[in-house]
Design a protein that fits this description.
It contains ten helices and ten strands. By secondary structure, the chain is an alpha/beta fold. Strands 1, 2, 3, 4, 5, 6, 7, 8, 9 and 10 form a ten-stranded mixed β-sheet that branches.
Length: about 220
């Protein structure tokens, strides 16, 4: 069985897939990549069984006939987080005004593709600071964690899903975040219309929502649905 997903859920899916394989004897291969690339691969007609993406991206695939509408379920909520290099001073991000000033003073700001990146760019435009910092924005290539850019010194602050920042060596989570920065992304799963075994695919999705999976989400920085 093949599950395709964005990077935000890769550790969670890998762990649940391993336990599901032991319990059922059905191996699940999880292919994680940037959410935009994942959606493109599904739309290209690639043979996939389960798709896990941000809810709005999965809804688009469902409308396009690539995911079975009656199979789609929410699996988790993920909060946006900020990170700085380990040992570096943490900027004040606790209020909108403080965060705006901190970002205006930053040497370079990293952000990701997908929902969290879209939110950050829209926020910078709403705060009317986008023009002032545009040249200092560093967009992580698909599949490259924002945390790595921060750890390597390519940016002194980075924004991404908490689940993607946790565990990246060389960084520290900065916070608390201002109200405008506290974006939450819903993630959902669905059975791909290209699957050859819809029953087994639905079984894996059920495992993603099972009580035993709740701790996995929490440990990796997400809130189970």
């Amino acid at each position: 069985m093949i599950c395709i997903s964005s990077m935000a859920t890769r550790h969670i899916l890998a762990e649940i897939a391993a336990s599901h394989g032991v319990a059922t004897g059905r191996k699940v291969n999880v292919n994680s990549m940037g959410g935009v690339d994942a959606a493109k691969r599904v739309e290209s007609g690639e043979s996939v069984d389960v798709v896990v993406l941000a809810a709005d991206a999965l809804a688009k695939l469902t409308r396009g006939g690539f995911v079975r509408a009656d199979s789609v379920v929410d699996i988790a909520r993920s909060a946006l987080a900020a990170a700085v290099k380990a040992g570096a001073a943490k900027p004040d991000l606790s209020s909108d005004d403080a965060a705006r000033q901190a970002l205006l003073g930053a040497r370079a700001i990293a952000y990701s593709t997908g929902p969290s990146g879209d939110h950050i760019i829209a926020l910078f435009k709403r705060w009317e600071i986008f023009a002032a910092i545009e040249a200092r924005l560093v967009k992580a290539p698909p599949g490259v964690p924002v945390g790595k850019l921060v750890a390597d010194g390519a940016a002194d602050i980075g924004f991404q899903q908490l689940s993607e920042l946790q565990g990246v060596p060389g960084i520290e989570i900065a916070g608390p975040l201002s109200p405008a920065l506290r974006a939450v992304t819903n993630f959902a799963a669905g059975v791909a219309t290209s699957t050859t075994d819809p029953q087994a695919s639905a079984g894996f999705i059920a495992a993603l929502r099972a009580p035993a999976a709740r701790d996995v989400y929490t440990r990796h920085g997400m809130e189970p649905a």
